[in-house]
Amino acid sequence: MTGRGSLLALLLGFMGAMPSVAAQAQEAQDRGGAPLSPELIDRRTQAVAETLRCVVCQNQSVADSESQLAQDMVKLIREEIAAGKSETEVRAYFAERYGEVVLLQPRFDTRNWGLWLGPGIALVIGLGGAIYFISTRSTTREEKVTDLSPADRVELAALRSEEGEGEA
To answer: Per its UniProt record, what InterPro entries does this chain match (predicted)?
Structure first.
């Protein structure tokens, strides 16, 4: 029964928002812009909401979050899009208001190049270190075998010959 109640509340919420969206679409048309259909407004709102981080939840998009602030952000996104603003303008507004942290996919610029290039640089350093470690480890073993005293060499040769006889 809880699932049906939640669905009903969600539908009523959308129905309550529809007159506001329709009024804003009419405003856009009055300003000379083409009116946006409610379906288009919903799709664009969802697209923008999926690219913005909820500032309360931090690891969820505004579209996925259930916090009150995220719901308010979705309403604001819907209002801005219905008023004729582009998705880029809406994202820029939120980035200006909350900072780059609100964008789930930060922009590539000089302030955050480390976020984009850091993993690749770390991978190259790690692979280089692994190759260096492996190459020095194999040469160290060879040096240990060649650093034997003459008596140890004779003993090693005897052990090797005994192993060879045992296998035959």
So the answer is: C-type_cytochrome_biogenesis, CcmH/CycL/Ccl2/NrfF_N, CcmH/CycL/NrfF/Ccl2_sf
